[in-house]
Amino acid sequence: MRSATSVATNYRAVCRARSKAEFIAKIGIVVEEADEIVFWAELINDLDILTVDKTVLLLKEANELLAIFSASNQTARGRR
Known about the structure:
The chain has 80 residues and is an all-alpha fold.
């Protein structure tokens, strides 16, 4: 839960970036936080803390968000 809220709060900061450099720096943080969610979801799955049905959906969504934020980061860096 904490990892998920960290992504949301950091993404909100990205949306309020005052410059391209600030955007790139902040979106990098969002990518790191999204990757952390993937890690925790994999760990929860590996340790059988939740049912497989729940962790599979969580992991799928976490990976999708990571891909979106990573692509945004790469696009911003490429246009710098």
